[in-house]
């Protein structure tokens, strides 16, 4: 059993919360937030999606790797890599940079994110939920960013009818291209709406 507390909390989504591992700074633990069953299902889907990615692509260098499950004081947890900047700080997501960072080079952020999406498409890495909160930007010592997908449920979290894009390469690439275009557009759009979106997020806490 691993005991977690609010001092370790680094992020919260709709179904899960993310905590630093109290015994290993290189890891984080995702646990259900609110609905225990749905949060647990999200962990199961991510671990299943991760195993499929590794089976099909080998040791990818653009994702947060999963390391199995663990019992925690807050429910069943999924252990994953903690993406950190080269100076040791926990890396910010695109959402953090766009919404909360006062100085943000949107053109550069879109450029780096676009190259990341191109890599996913080129290699058929079907991570369809590529939104601003699911990509961490590791800041290198020269000030550049290296993106990592930090939610890899992929084809096991595909709500479309029959989930054909998860199994047919042509359809998968088309869907990934649409999601990539949407992501790049939202980087600019959400920067313009950052005050509104900060208010909405604060109201939901």
Any idea how many domains? Answer: 2
Helix content: 25-40%
Which structural class do the helices and strands define?
A: alpha+beta
Q: Secondary-structure element order, as H and E?
A: EEEHEEEHHEEHH
Uncertain regions spanning at least 5 consecutive residues? none
Rg computed from alpha carbons, rounded to a whole number of angstroms: 17 Å
Please summarize the sheet with the most strands. Answer: 5 strands, antiparallel
> Strand arrangement, largest sheet?
1-2-3-5-4
The fraction of residues in strands falls at 15-25%
Structure in words:
The chain is α+β, with helices and mostly antiparallel strands. The protein has two domains: 6-81, Phosphorylase Kinase, domain 1 (2-Layer Sandwich); 92-204. The protein is 40% helix and 20% strand. The strands form two sheets. The chain has a five-stranded antiparallel sheet with strand order 1-2-3-5-4, covered by helices on one side. Strands 6-7-8 form a three-stranded antiparallel sheet. Helix 2 runs parallel beside helix 4 (169-192) and helix 3 (106-122) packs antiparallel against helix 4.
